[in-house]
Amino acid sequence: MDLVKRLEEYRDRERELTWEGTFAQYFEIATKQPSIAQLSHERIYNMIMAAGTDASRSGDPRYKFFSQEIFGLEKPLQQIAEYFHSAAQRLEVRKRILLLMGPVGGGKSTIVHLLKRGLEQYTRAQEGAIYAIRDCPMHEEPLHLIPVELRADVEREFDLYVEGDLCPHCRWMVEDKYGGKIEEIPVKRIAFSEKYRIGIGTFTPSDPKSQDVAELVGGIDLSTIGEVGVESDPRAYRFDGELNIANRGLMEFIEMLKCLPGSSLLFTQSGIRRLDSFAQSDHPAGESRSVEVQLASSTGVETTAHLYHAGVQPTKRVTTRRGYVSEGTFEHRIQVVNNEGVQVWRRHDELQVGDWVVMQKGQNLWGQDVEIQWQPKRPILASRIKTPERMTPGLARWLGYMTGEGDTRPDGTIRFSNVEEELRADYCQLTQELFGVQPRCYQKVVQLNNVALLDLLDYLGFKTGAYNKEIPWSVLQSSRECVLEFLSGYFAGDGTVNLGGRLSWPLPRSGWRNKCKLSCSILVW
């Protein structure tokens, strides 16, 4: 290899990228090569197609642009190419964000890496050449200089489609520096580069309390206000956010969506609900569906947009010394306090024993008392009972008694094992008032036999057996008063108080333990 000759060839190619001229000269180039004015989606699609395609054994197209790095993902790659194809035709799909979702090691980062490196190379080639207004911090498309009134005529005569407006800095430059003579505005050729922050941006979310929106859209440059006079002057603004530098190119948002197990509990406008309760039975893995739910977050009540079903993935479970549990995929982040006492976000797989986990208490978002829409399964053979119309504090306390020291049998036997007269009397009175059934009192057990009531208990979410204990769904999705009454009944039947005044109770399962602790942390604050 002749290194000196190769260096000379490299300098020649670099000189081609240093073209500068006026807007009038650029417009002449654009009329001869309209592709230099293409929008970002069209540029990426043409880049992919320029590498060529062939057919797989199944007949699906295989894109050579990805073939050297990605294997076995023909279908997802085809969907990505179809997205850019539709967006290149300026259809509505171009307004959507392209989300790459999948398991760890599924090729998401590799695909984005190929697109970014591909754009860097493609914009250095003649077929991918791109030009910008010189001195524009956002590398503005020069055709934006054309007044809106003339754009329709330009498209009709020269086949040049113009979309977008000048940034504030370029508008100031046209009016104040060049006196409105757009044909004299300097234009130069550029090449996208992630390293030099031209046309390719990357954003990684961190602590929402300390992270500034200026990282995305720039901000006021206080050092220039003394020179320009006022903050409203475009020269006093730094157009250096990731979205600014990614203008006309590609923007990568890293780790925007992470996964929690379906058993995760959420505080919503319909009460405390499992995450998977919002998914439909036919929701396939790897797809998202529109779901609007108001839920409590660290910044207040927010409304969701979509629910994504990631399928089966490895998770990591984190348990605090007090028994609180957080479970999610390895890249899911939770908030911790670092050695400097600052709250930061860390991935599950980055957590260490001894880390201080930040917990939010007092999420005062509750549902309405659940309407009971139960119908007897055995209306003829079973003894009829009175059915409450909705969850009430009394019914919630009765379910608390049952969860704490109750059990059932398939033959309809329902028992409450307790020897305290006050609790037994309250249990009997509630049973009579709620269901119209009078239980029988024995020395250590209060008992009744009714298969219809057994069916109702199953509908309300009651689980018999010490290992199966959990807070019924009908209680979790009801009002705060009902959750309080349930815990009151449960603690009265199965809780104890030590000499130090601390409450304790048996928690047989991690799921039940987490629900109970979660409810208590919200109620007692």
The number of distinct structural domains comes to 3
Tell me about the biggest sheet? 4 strands, antiparallel
For the CA atoms, what is the radius of gyration? 32 Å
**Shape designation:** elongated
Adjacency order of strands in the biggest sheet: 21-22-24-23
The helix content, as a percent range, equals 25-40%
Structural category is: alpha+beta
Number of helices: 17
Strand content: 15-25%
Mean pLDDT: 84
Termini, distance in Å?
Answer: 74 Å
Count the strands?
Answer: 26
Return residue spans where pLDDT drops below 50 for at least 5 consecutive residues: 517-525
Summarize the structure in short.
The chain has 3 domains: 12-205 and 245-252, no CATH class; 265-357, Hedgehog/Intein (Hint) domain (Endonuclease - Pi-scei, Chain A, domain 1), CATH 2.170.16.10; 393-523, Roll (Endonuclease I-creI), CATH 3.10.28.10.
Note down, in words, how this protein is organized.
By secondary structure, the protein is of the alpha+beta class. The chain has three domains: 12-205 and 245-252, no CATH class; 265-357, Endonuclease - Pi-scei, Chain A, domain 1 (Beta Complex); 393-523, Endonuclease I-creI. It is built from 17 helices and 26 strands. It has a four-stranded antiparallel beta sheet. It is elongated. It starts with a helix and ends with a helix. The model is unreliable at 517-525 (pLDDT under 50).
